[in-house]
Amino acid sequence: MKPQVVIAEEDVIASVADALQYISYFHPADYIAHLTRAFEREASPAAKDAIAQILVNSRMAALGHRPICQDTGLVVAFVKVGMEVRFDTERPLADLIHDGVRRAYLDEANPLRASMVEDPLVARRNTRDNSPAVVHVELVPGRTVTITVAAKGGGSENKARFATLNPGASVVDWVLKTVPELGAGWCPPGMIGLGIGGSAEKAMLLAKEALLEEIDMTDLLARGPASKEEELRVELYEKINALGIGAQGLGGVTTVVDVKIATYPTHAASKPVALIPQCAANRHATIILDGTGPVRLDPPDLSAWPQIVIGTASLGARRVDLDTLTREEMAEWKPGEKLLLSGRMLTGRDAAHQRLSNLLKAGEPLPVSLKDRVLYYVGPVDPVGAEAVGPAGPTTATRMDPFTEDILGTGLLAMVGKAERGPETIASIARHKAAYLIAVGGAAYLVSKAVRAARVVAFADLGMEAIHEFEVEDMPVTVAVDATGQSIHTLGPALWRRRIAEGRVGAET
Questions:
Q1: Which of 63, 195, 259, 477 holds its CA 20 to 30 A away from the CA of 167?
Q2: Are 365 and 446 part of one and the same domain?
Q3: Structural domain containing residue 168
Q4: Model confidence pLDDT, tens digit, residues 24-40
Q5: 409 and 330 in a common domain
Q6: What CATH number does the domain containing 346 carry?
Q7: Are residues 145 and 164 both part of a single domain?
Q8: pLDDT at position 263, please?
Q9: Whole-angstrom Cα distance, residue 183 to residue 194?
Q10: Global pTM?
């Protein structure tokens, strides 16, 4: 009988920490290959520019070993433990994973943003080290421990959906109804993972695990489907892209680069279906422990990353001085127009908005004036070295919708975020003759290079959610909602849905 394989506690912790650092700045090569193909065939100029920014950001992050996205994610670990393995520890396996998370996220060379909060109901206090992880453990035959770690951003995780369909109901119809309702907050182009069968919780787990599979849609389309499941993948891939949602919801021919499906037997009366989108920050890696020590992942070959130059993207963009901006100037902006912002802007997201709203309702003064300012919805990563700020991409703006009317009432000029705004918020923007701009979600490191200085000006105790003042130079954004209430997230997808249906995808916007 072979002796048991012994895995030291430090081997688990160190390996998990290294894998989490690795995925913070290295995209999987399969995603880059498929996103590059999407860039090459994209016909919408706005979507093509967004994909270009994501690809350039990815290469910058890989070279600089800094996070792809400021939302460095909720950590999910899928652990398969071989039955012939023994752990040399008296602690629960999940605690070792949590320690690996802490070590990775507190790494001084590349600190990652702590986003996890304790007590999800009331206090919601940040744990400050991004622990705990969500851990799934399975006992399997073998002499190794396989750990797959994924870092899931809140923007895409919040768009997870579940339904129990009637046995004869169409999965395709439900998906095509559901995907447009997700909006753009999940930062397409990405992937859709579907879990079909089992029970409610099993379906959700299947969908999450499906997103870890290799992206192979290009090969599948070339060889043709070999099963009913593959036929369904192709059908959904083509029909989702025909919706015209496009990169960042701007309208275009690629919304997803792949659709993944995992199934499990289910009750005869049931058809549980879970849908989980994966954003452009597609981050996961697998390590295998065999008792010989910790595992370190080899860096990918960066020659697989396309050499895209986006310096010329400023051509035709309107330059905006935030320090002298007026509503009269903003009235000239049009949906889909590119802007380059320079000057001083404030930041603020969920927790800061709640506090500002509470102060306004109580008739108390705000800690910083919002009059004639622009507010960026961002929770940046801590800086390292000479950085003014770490990766600082936009967060999903719809979460700020409940506060927007009150905030605009202070004299705020404009907001910067990602994804669409709700109809009441759009009406409020038009009523105040304000504007809503979007930066590219998934291009956080690239965006941060436009920030020349940063300082905390209010609510320092909120950590990454504190209000900062940024000084920016040529920060690229797109007008999403103009002063009249016209929205690119309505106009763009509608235009490209028509063009795709009519076979006119090569037409200029």
A1: 259
A2: yes
A3: 154-280
A4: 999 999 999 999 999 99
A5: yes
A6: 3.20.130.10
A7: no
A8: 98
A9: 18
A10: 0.93
Are 354 and 446 within one domain?
A: yes
Q: Are 57 and 445 in contact (CB under 8 A)?
A: yes
Please check whether residue 447 lies inside any domain of the structure. Answer: yes
**CATH number for 248:** 3.30.1330
Task: Specify whether 140 is located in the same domain as 210.
Answer: no
Q: How far is CA 155 from CA 158, 419, 473, in A?
A: 6, 10, 26
Residue 506: predicted pLDDT:
64
Q: Are 456 and 448 in contact (CB under 8 A)?
A: no
Residue-wise pLDDT tens digits, 452-462: 999 999 999 99
Helix (H) or strand (E) holding 63: helix 45-64
Residues in the chain: 509
49 φ/ψ angles, rounded to the nearest 5 degrees: -65, -40
Asked if residue 32 belongs to a domain, the reply is no
Q: Which residues contact 381 (CB under 8 A, 6 or more apart)?
A: 66, 67, 70, 72, 111, 112, 113, 389, 390, 391, 392, 444, 448, 464
Token pair in block for residue 436? 């809503």
How do residues 300-357 score in pLDDT, each as one tens digit? 999 989 988 775 445 579 999 999 999 999 999 999 999 999 999 999 999 999 999 9
CA pair distance 204, 209, nearest whole angstrom: 9
- Unique residue bearing structure tokens 């507010």: 375
Q: What is the pLDDT of residue 312?
A: 45
Closest CA to 437 of 418, 461, 455, 451: 418
Residue with the two structure tokens 């549980």: 272
Q: Are residues 145 and 197 in the same domain?
A: no
Q: Is 162 exposed, middle or buried (0-12, 13-18, 19+ CB in 10 A)?
A: middle
CA dist., res. 64 & res. 427, Å (int)? 42
Indicate if 334 and 458 belong to the same structural domain.
Answer: yes
Residue 399: what residue type?
A: R
With beta carbons less than 8 A apart as the criterion, state whether 415 and 400 touch: yes
Q: Which residue has the tokens 């012994």?
A: 6
Q: Report the half-sphere exposure of 300 (CA within 13 A, side-chain side).
A: 22
**Of 256, 249, 246, nearest in space to 43 by CA:** 246
Burial state string for 185-216 with b = 16 or more CB within 10 A and e = fewer than 16: bbbbbbbbbbbbbbeeebbbbbbbbbbbeebb
- How far is it, in rounded angstroms, from Cα 439 to Cα 437? 7
- Judge whether 401 lies within some domain: yes
The kind and range of the H/E element at 318 are: strand 318-321
Residue 476 lies in a domain: yes
**CA dihedral angle for residue 228, residue 233, residue 236, residue 239, rounded to 10 degrees:** -100
**123 shares its domain with 172:** no
